[in-house]
Design a protein that fits this description.
The complex is a heterodimer of chains A (398) and B (187). Chain A contains 14 helices and 13 strands. With 398 residues, chain A is α+β, with helices and mostly antiparallel strands. Chain B is built from 7 helices and 7 strands, in the order ααβαααββββαββα. In chain B, the strands form 2 sheets. A 4-stranded antiparallel beta sheet of chain B has the order 1-2-3-4, with no helix packed on it. In chain B, strands 5-6-7 form a 3-stranded antiparallel beta sheet. In chain B, β6 and β7 form a beta hairpin. In chain B, α3 runs antiparallel to α4 and α3 crosses α5. Classes of the chains: A alpha+beta (398), B alpha+beta (187). At the A-B interface, β3 and α6 of A face β5, β6 and α7 of B. β3 of chain A pairs antiparallel with β5 of chain B.
């Protein structure tokens, strides 16, 4: 039936491909959070006393979900032509999506923990069309296939532009072929950045959880109640001593709070930014990061809409700042590259961009170490100059 | 001796579109604006979709009528009759009229889509602004060999323009036309 829809004359003899079979495994993993929807049904079975049916119901749910994932996998196929990606999906409602390479602004590669174990990756095509359901992605293909796909698309994007520049000026500058490392964060730098990422959010989550499940917990202990701590001390015969030296108890509480805040800050920083690398490719900036979920995002230099560099007072004392490079074709799918860098290394990063950028995108270098009073002003100026260099016709929707 | 006007019809068409004689004729609006109508079979798709939406609603109204009206001594049967009459009207009469208000034109470098009668919307999408193209086909559309074309432009607001009721081969051909224009533009 869909043959009439699928007719596409100039695909260059490429073959239809399917997603990696491990997509089914991923679908099972994704079922974990989704099964929360099923929880009320199970609870209803329990309340009405039909305990016998709970296990069959869960099994049926799993089976149906697996069958649905299997059907979706069977009905999903894609083809990478000479200058376009075509994706066909949908079990009952068929959809045939054509994405020209010209319109793909960046190709992101993302690997969760399970994906890394299976050697597959999720490939996302950022086209600048708004909305979550509008950007196309391939849920799981082999990692080397994903990288090959990105190389193909990048090569296509750079080919016509390079030819045009050669035609325009006779002494064409030699194209820089190799990727250069602009910035990397080692463990030590992550540690320092994590210290500035102080957060008590984890504690709040734990506290809220304990409030919520107070009756269900097998032990009766509230972290935020000093009396419970005194009871603990009493077990070791220290309660009188603690009551006599309350300031020590208070100090201990403060220190432990600080410790939790710093530890959670460092933990989130390490999980999100482990192995952070920012590389300059011939036409794009590429960021790789993540401990469990590794993401690999490339932003074409010409699509950069703004770059901001901001530093708080404490950061300035450490001569350190956070940079954000943002290409946001749409508010819903803003892509931004952030890194925490020393001020001294910010300068070289901008200089390198300035030397390789084309005439349409001339980078202004932000002052390496602004005076304290004018920090805000210099920040806005550098943001303006970066925004002014964006050559993309897209709306600046922030 | 009468000159067969049909011989010159094409030339007349290129100069000015013929003035509609009857302004209430279903296709008068499209003809006046130089738009092509969508496939008439699309009215069946609209009809089935409307029926799937309205019949459950009408059943619900009937049940509510049956449950509520005897208790409050209201006029039993009024709501039921009204609901089924409205559903009948919307399913039998309106689809053809609604479909006749859809019009499209593939021009030089742009796609024009117009729809609606009371609230008429006329959308023009330049091909160079198209990001990617979908051709979709639902199960009901498949019965009638129809597809719908969706062009995505950049931005978040009104970034999707949908044109339903195209024969599947025509939709694919339109996709290829738009596709070629994207190719020639170096964004």
């Amino acid at each position: 039936m869909s043959e009439a829809v699928a007719v596409s004359p100039d695909l260059g003899g490429a073959q239809w491909q399917r997603l990696h079979p491990a997509t089914l495994a991923l679908a099972l993993v994704k079922l974990g959070p989704r099964s929360l929807q099923f929880l009320p049904a199970v609870a209803a079975l329990g309340f009405t006393g039909n305990w016998v049916w709970i296990v069959p119901a869960i099994l049926a749910y799993l089976l149906i979900a697996l069958a649905a994932a299997c059907l979706q996998w069977m009905r999903f196929r894609f083809i990478v032509g000479d200058d376009e990606v075509v994706i066909e999906s949908g079990v009952l409602s068929r959809q045939h999506r054509t994405i020209p390479f010209d319109r793909i602004q960046d190709v992101s590669i993302e690997q969760g923990l399970v994906s890394r174990a299976l050697g597959i990756a999720k490939v996302g095509f950022e086209t600048g069309a708004g909305g979550k359901e509008n950007d196309a992605h391939l849920d799981a293909i082999g990692l080397d296939a994903a990288q090959a796909l990105r190389t193909t698309i990048r090569a296509h994007r750079s080919a016509p532009v390079a030819a045009a520049s050669v035609a325009a000026e006779a002494p064409a500058p030699a194209p820089v072929a190799e990727d250069r490392l602009l910035f990397a964060m080692g463990p030590r730098r992550l540690l320092v950045a994590g210290l500035f990422n102080f957060s008590l959010a984890a504690l709040a989550v734990v506290g809220a959880g304990m409030q919520f499940f107070d009756d269900l917990l097998p032990f009766d202990f509230n972290v935020f109640d000093p009396r419970d701590w005194i009871d603990v001390a009493a077990d070791y015969g220290l309660d009188q001593w603690v009551l006599a030296h309350r300031w020590i108890a208070g100090l201990g509480a403060a220190i432990s709070l600080l410790f939790i805040g710093f530890a959670s800050g460092i933990a989130t920083m390490v999980f999100a930014n482990w192995g952070f690398r920012l590389t300059r490719e011939p036409r794009a900036l590429r960021r790789t990061r993540g401990l469990t979920t590794r993401t690999d995002v490339a932003v074409p230099v010409k699509r950069v809409q703004a770059g901001t560099s901001c530093a708080s007072k404490a950061w300035r004392a450490m001569a350190r700042r956070r940079r954000t490079i943002r290409s946001s074709p749409s508010a819903g799918s803003a892509r931004s590259i952030r890194c925490w860098a020393r001020s001294r290394s910010v300068g070289p990063m901008t200089r390198r961009r300035g030397s390789t950028a084309t005439a349409s995108s001339h980078w202004a270098r932000s002052s390496a170490r602004p005076p304290r009073r004018s920090a805000a002003a210099s920040r806005s100026i550098s943001a303006m100059t970066w925004a002014g260099s964006a050559s993309s016709p897209r709306r600046w929707s922030r | 001796v009468s000159v067969p006007r049909d011989l010159f019809k094409d030339q007349f068409m290129t100069d000015t579109p013929p003035a509609p004689t009857d302004p209430f004729a279903p296709d008068a609006l499209n003809a006046a604006e130089g738009l092509d109508p969508v496939d008439p079979a699309y009215s069946h798709v609209v009809r089935i979709a409307t029926a799937l939406n309205l019949i459950p609603l009408a059943i619900g109204a009937s049940v509510a009528d049956w449950l509520v009206m005897p208790r409050i001594d209201g006029p039993y049967g009024l709501v039921t009759t009204a609901a089924w009459l409205f559903a009948l009207l919307a399913i039998v009469m309106l689809p053809a009229r609604r479909v006749s208000r859809w019009g499209y034109k593939i021009g030089e470098g742009q796609l024009r889509v117009a729809r609606g009668w009371l609230f008429r919307t006329d959308t023009i999408v330049p091909f160079v602004r198209v990001q990617h193209i979908d051709v979709g086909q639902g199960p009901v559309e498949r019965l009638f060999g129809l597809s719908h074309l969706v062009v995505h432009t950049s931005g978040t607001h009104n970034s999707m323009v949908t044109l339903p009721g195209l024969r599947s081969d025509l939709a694919a051909a339109m996709r290829e036309t738009i596709r070629r224009h994207i190719q020639t533009d170096f964004a």
